[in-house]
Amino acid sequence: MRILIVEDEPDLLASLAQALREEGYAVDTADNGDDGLFNAEGTDYDAIILDVMLPGIDGWEILKRLRKTKKTPVLMLTARDQTRDRVKGLDTGADDYVVKPFDLEEVFARLRAIIRRSANKTTNLIEIGDVKIDTAARNIFLKDKPVEITAREYALVEFLALHRGEVVTRTQLYEHLFDENESSLSNLLDVHVSNVRKKLGAEFIATRRGHGYCIE
Amino acid sequence: MKIFKSIKWRLQIWYGLILVVVLAGFGITAYQLERNRQFRQVDDELHRRFGVLANALHRPPPRRQDADQQSFDRPPPDQLSNDGPPGRSFRQPTEFHLPEQDAHFFDASDPNNFYFTIITRDGRELGGSTNQPTPIGEPAQETSSYSHPVNHVDQAFSVSKFNGNFPKPNKVTSFGNHRETVEMLPSGEIIVVGCSIAPEFKELQRTAVNLTAIGSLILVVGLVGGWWLVSRAIKPINEISATAVKISAGDLSQRINVAEAESELGQLAAVLNSTFARLESAFAQQKQFASDAAHELRTPVSVILTQTQTSLNRERDAASYKQTVEACQRAAQRMRKLIESLLALARFDAGQEILKRQQFDFSKTISDCAELVSPLSDERGVKISIEAEPVEIIGDSERLAQVVTNLLTNAIQYNNPDGEVRVKLESQNGLAVLTVADTGQGIAAENLPQVFGRFFRADSSRTGAGNSGLGLAITKAIVEAHGGTIEVASEENAGTTFTVRLPISA
After folding, report:
1. How far is Cα A1 from Cα A118, in angstroms, rounded to an integer?
2. Which in A69, A92, B183, B289 has the greatest CB count within 10 A?
3. Secondary structure class of B485 (helix, strand, coil)
4. pLDDT tens-place string over residues B135-180
5. CATH second-level architecture of B355-503?
6. What ranges do the domains of chain A cover?
7. Do B298 and A104 touch (CB under 8 A)?
């Protein structure tokens, strides 16, 4: 899962980014509205965390312009908890909002929720054959036994599971699993795929030659 | 008693009382007048009949000629025999018979009609009508009861003329249901004329009943009308108090409906409404201020929360913890600055900020401040030029230094790189005039009036830059506490100029 955070307070931005990376997300950051909009329009993020008060273009404006081209789920961070601010955010196209000061756990939960909703899933549990994926706890079970899995491998499984039945291209996977700071070494993805197959069974991820990967 | 505390009830009771008194006064007067009128009427009749009798008594009676015709007028035989022994050696007639032409004055058929008795000086009854009430017939009482009036009349008649026209008897008395006049003629006969006034009493009673009924009706109408009037008059008061109740319950947007702006209550309502409006705007301002202050605190608190929560998620190395602690420190510093600013503003608002008053050279303060902000101006590549003549002013040098620092910092922060800040201090008409002009992007005209407002930022971007949005508000508060003024002029993309005027000998 690849996330964009647009937030102008450097300390907040840094800690949010760090926390999300540790949760297994690929995180891009922007500390002003212009960069934020540029990134949001240029990349298919799985979700965007967007502060309202920003230098340059503010959060509302970014949301408005982004909604013309993309349906990326957006979680607004707002320091105003008045109803009209929240209504404005939701009406402009935000998927959810968190009022500052917030708890990280809440941000994580809301983030998962908007990603899940954008994939048309209503629960945290995805079942594929013998494999169960708990997207809240970020655990994978094979025949009800927990499977040891790295954060990046989990992200790969989750992304493919959320797009079950679709062929996901390697480019897409790179875009969603790695952030802009990671060099997209082409064999890194193959390593992750092969590790997942070892842990969950060779048939779990199917390869479509010349196209990408797929979970049937 | 709650009733006596209500204005409505008190008014009602008061004019109820007044109405009762007035009505009673009118009623009693009307009754008296009616009574007097009735009695005067009776008295007039009595006098008329007295005159008739007096005339008849002294007119030479056409005795023989009319005797047969007169017979009907004669008192019945038993009465005649009662007349007592005739034959006194008097000039006067021994008997009196009512002449026929006067008979209609004393119709004896009804006991309520007029009656008369004529008594001679020595107490003999000369004649009378048959319908006299019984007391008159008793001689013993007769003398005693009439002695006084007779004496009295004696004197009265000595003065009055008795010639052709009847004298006016001056004594009419009532006893029981009767009214009588008793007069002595100069010739010595005493004439008693009386009548029953029972019908008059009956009529007076009816009048009294009528008056009471009319009075009660007026009282009821008055009370009902008064109640209506008072209710109407009090209605605006009720409206005012209802509105006030709603306002005190927290709904400050309530206003009194001023329908009658001309009346005293309408004016009161208008005054109250304007007070409510000011209250509401003051509350709204306060609310906005509190919400802005809370908003300003949210970001640093968010920083501390996310920093610490991230940091505590797992074991980390010392450098990572140090970073977290440093970030928390920055956030705390920011909050401290904000809290200090808020407190300063609150003190200025409450007039509690105590200014140290001492004489100092303001130009020196300016150069000190310029030096203080020089790291910032160097960093931004902004040049500061100072043109200050020495001006001694009296005031709080620390607070005024804060004013200069705030203005300089603003001028640097909102300047373009390689811009310029021109500071000028001069003395004009007893005022120290400080101008700080920058060559920055300027402030949009529509934002100018809010520049000194709390938490105003021309650009919402500056949140993170350690700029609380309170700097200019505090600057203004300090200047005004010194009795000075601060103005701003700005041209977009050309620059902004702040002008501070301070009284030199404040």
Report:
1. 12
2. B183
3. strand
4. 544 333 333 334 334 434 443 333 333 444 445 555 777 777 888 8
5. 2-Layer Sandwich (3.30)
6. 2-118, 125-214
7. no
